Amino acid sequence: MTPARPDIDPQLQALLAEMPLMPQLSPEVVAQLRRLPSTPVETFLEGRTVDRREVTVPGPDGARIPLSILSPAGADRATAAPCVYWIHGGGMIMGDRFSNIDIPLEWLDLLGAVVISVDYRLAPEATGTTLVEDCYHALLWIAEHADELGVDPARVIVAGVSAGGGLAAGVALMARDRGAPAIAAQMLICPMLDHRNITTSSRQYSGGPGVWTREMNEFGWQAVLGDHAGRDVSCYVSPAVADDLSGLPATYIDAGTAEVFRDEDVDYATRIWAAGGQAELHIWAGGFHGFDALYPQARVSAAARRTRNDWLARLLSPDSHT
To answer: Which residues contact 94 (CB under 8 A, 6 or more apart)?
Structure first.
């Protein structure tokens, strides 16, 4: 019997009814999804005055990691800008550096932030810590080239959605443990944090097609972890298994009540507080996984985006550093 679950917001439900839901995942389905053309980044840049630069940077094993650097055109280079380092979602098995790029581009518009988005390698071709190491080494490159990029190294925000939120959390743990680079904040949007799938919300959103179900989640984690799924999983890959969440930067976490990741996200914020850290947590009533990315026009989506924008604006205001 399917367990009781929170209702989806009525406006979101009506929108979702018009969208074909993702089928259960398999290697063949993932291959098909990867072949689908993504929305060209030029679509998101249209109407914005943005300077764009494409670079590749060295990864830990010599692989080249693509980065897109999007900066406000005509910005005063005498004043270093905040930087949003964006890590895309896609279950760690699909997506690219332009996936959901409209979210951080709002912060370029509103806050004058330089947005840098990374193309980390995907599972199952890359496994274990490879994905998070790609993200971490690209962040090191950003820190080392901050002057050239016009970026303030004291105002670097690591942000990501879904799998990208989990990788952002892993990067923050890695930076803490390795002593560099400095991260001012982590913005974790419906993050994928726990490979164990043991929460109530994981059980609630099991079975059938959907935006992201328990079974899809298990498929993604299996692709990353392979034979290691049941043992010795690194906290940099699955941040929820970290013993110590102290010493992390200011953290923002949000999710919906109607999604797989709800409870692991609440638990992560709770453990940051228990370790003496600062986290802001928002669980949006009726939100399913990625609701505000899929349907930004919905009322609850607009509220979620506005609340994130306000938090970042407060964090980056001069008063917050006095």
So the answer is: 30, 33, 34, 122
CA 132, 117, 246, 292: dihedral to nearest 10 degrees? -110
Q: How many Å apart are CA 33 and CA 148, to the nearest integer? A: 37
Task: Inform me whether the pLDDT recorded for 322 exceeds 90.
Answer: no
Convert the pLDDT of each residue in 211-229 to its tens digit: 899 999 999 999 999 876 6
Closest of 117, 71, 79, 74 to residue 98, by C-alpha: 117
Element (H, E) at 187: strand 185-189
Whether the predicted model's global pTM rises above the 0.90 cut:
yes
- Contact assessment for residue 171 and residue 87, using Cβ atoms and an 8 Å cutoff: yes
Are 294 and 305 in contact by the 8 Å Cβ rule? The answer is no
| Phi and psi angles of residue 81, each rounded to the nearest 5 degrees, phi first | -95, 155
Please give the Cα distance from 295 to 297 (Å, whole number): 5
Q: What is the pLDDT of residues 186-201, one digit of tens each?
A: 999 999 999 999 999 9
Query: Class of 10-321 per CATH?
Result: alpha beta
Report domain extents, the chain: 10-321
